[in-house]
Write a sequence for this structure.
């Protein structure tokens, strides 16, 4: 963690602790507010409530303890409890819509298969009927043989 001999940072003891002019930052330099991308990642980390207290403590070390708590309390209340649940609600609604669409597609496919089977069956029945209509002579001969026996 950063340290300083004066100011709001951690106070360095004179027992060999070294204060450097530059510091990568916490989590290998990922957790910071130096640019928009890392700031959004840090805010996301805070609203998911995964390690937000560490970020609060680092902010306290860098800026003092008077104001950062206001930012983090409002971020957790508004971000975590309201916005995150709103996003989850929208996602849940979208998944429900997709599930309904998939069900409708499945029902349509079943109906289409049933219609195809009925058309095939009608075609077979027409074919059989036509075959019976074409060969009435064999039918008459079969009747005569049946009468002889």
């Amino acid at each position: 963690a950063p340290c300083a001999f004066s100011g709001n940072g951690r106070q360095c003891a004179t027992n060999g602790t070294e204060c450097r002019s530059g510091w990568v930052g916490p989590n290998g330099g990922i957790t910071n507010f130096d640019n928009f991308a890392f700031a959004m990642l840090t805010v996301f980390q805070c609203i998911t409530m995964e390690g937000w207290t560490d970020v609060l403590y680092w902010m306290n070390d860098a800026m003092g303890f008077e104001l950062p708590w206001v930012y983090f309390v409002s971020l957790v209340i508004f971000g975590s409890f309201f916005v995150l649940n709103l996003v989850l609600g929208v996602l849940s609604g979208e998944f429900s819509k997709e599930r309904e669409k998939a069900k409708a597609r499945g029902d349509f496919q079943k109906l289409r298969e049933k219609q195809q089977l009925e058309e095939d069956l009608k075609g077979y029945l027409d074919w059989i009927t036509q075959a019976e209509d074409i060969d009435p002579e064999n039918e008459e001969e079969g009747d005569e043989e049946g009468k002889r026996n």
Remarks:
- Residues 68-134 form the longest helix (67 residues).
